[in-house]
Design brief:
The protein is an alpha/beta fold and 267 residues long. The chain has ten helices and ten strands. Strand 4 and strand 5 form a beta hairpin. It binds adenosine-5'-triphosphate.
Length: 267
């Protein structure tokens, strides 16, 4: 069967300002239950977008749809459009593995491999044929610096990643995702299990990473959304009720439900 090689399919002439990723009328069903309904959002290069909303409103489902992680859930069915750099992500013959290199993901719970810190970063690179030690070492240092972890671990690169603290493990997971040089980084509540200091380090890391990536983050932390994101989408019962500049969402939302949610007066 023919596979769809994303590297061959960029639409020429896109400027930095063009949209990296967008969805149009995206719906996701789990069996008979529709979890998100007609979600149309677009994401720009070098911007952070927060997805906020009450529990169960479909934020993670939406995020997972963006790099087809819902494929792993047998009951999930996706309709509508997802376009990444002009490529239809839902195209059935797409090379999903290749696409996930471009649209990387970091999960809520840090999930480093049970390997050394170095191998966590180099594992996928080696799988993709990068063998030269010097290049691997350079990439390890670069991404650990980008994830603000280098100073903590530079003398223990060959020690187990599982010996790191939760916050360090999560920064290692960010480094691991960044090592593949994606264009888009999806993060599902990456700091929810962390203490305030680790959370603030993750936020600094994300603000630094947005120079190179488009970042989409699910968060329940309103301060976090307002501190780090350029745009915010408010999800409610599977729909996006409001999407705007983060400053507007937090100071002059158009919809009462948004105002109630961001001010903590929901329900
Ligand atoms: N694997 C699944 N199978 C069946 N239903 C699911 C599955 N995952 C999520 N759902 C349902 O889809 C709806 C949306 O869930 P989702 O996890 O996307 O919401 P969320 O906004 O991310 O919630 P939270 O903030 O609590 O993480 C919920 O009703 C949930 O029960």
């Amino acid at each position: 069967m023919q596979t769809y090689d994303l590297s061959q399919t960029f639409i020429k002439g896109f400027s930095q300002e063009e949209l990296v990723l967008y969805t149009k009328d995206l719906c996701v069903w789990y069996g008979e239950k529709e979890a998100i309904h007609n979600v149309s959002l677009s994401f720009e290069q070098n911007k952070i977008t927060s997805l906020i909303g009450p529990s169960g409103c479909g934020k993670s489902t939406y995020l997972r749809a963006l790099n087809r992680m819902n494929d792993e859930i047998p009951s999930a069915k996706v309709t509508g459009e997802i376009y990444y750099q002009g490529v239809d992500v839902n195209y059935k013959n797409i090379d999903v593995y290749e696409m996930r290199k471009r649209i990387g993901m970091v999960f809520q719970r840090p999930n480093p491999f049970s390997k050394s810190i170095r191998e966590n970063v180099t594992f996928a690179l080696k799988q993709h044929g990068l063998k030269e030690k010097k290049l691997l070492d350079e990439r390890v240092e670069k991404v650990l610096r980008q994830a603000a972890l280098w100073e903590d671990v530079k003398d223990s690169l060959d020690k187990s990643a599982l010996a790191l603290s939760g916050g360090q493990q999560q920064r290692l997971c960010i480094a691991r995702a960044v090592a593949m040089q994606p264009d888009v980084l999806l993060l599902d509540e990456p700091a929810s299990a962390l203490d305030p200091i680790s959370t603030s380090k993750i936020e600094e890391t994300l603000l630094d990473l947005k120079k190179n990536y488009s970042i989409i983050i699910v968060t329940h932390n309103m301060q976090q959304a307002s501190r780090i994101s350029d745009y915010t989408a408010f999800f409610y019962t599977g729909k996006v009720l409001e999407y705007d500049d983060t400053r507007k969402i937090f100071t002059r939302p158009k919809i009462k439900a948004t105002e109630d949610y961001v001010s903590g007066h929901f329900g």
